[in-house]
Design goal:
Blueprint lengths: L4 H15 L1 H12 L4 H8 L3 H23 L1
């Protein structure tokens, strides 16, 4: 089951990106690529506050979707 986790995470990211693409992009840039949030905000031409909100919401959406895929 642990081996399937990366595949399920990718599936969750694809599904969430259909309706919330910027949130998934923020999560990917910050959590996967390790880019600092200030730089992520600059790259996406959004405020740091918006980037922080997108990160929190994106993480939450991905966690919920991943949980539903694992159940």
């Amino acid at each position: 089951q642990t081996c399937a986790l990366p595949i399920l995470l990718e599936q969750a990211m694809i599904e969430v990106a259909r309706t919330h693409p910027r949130q998934v992009e923020v999560v990917t840039l910050h959590c996967v690529a390790g880019i600092p949030m200030e730089r992520v905000a600059d790259m996406l031409a959004i405020s740091p506050a918006t980037a922080a909100r997108d990160l929190a919401a994106g993480r939450d959406r991905l966690a919920r979707r991943l949980k539903s895929l694992r159940d």
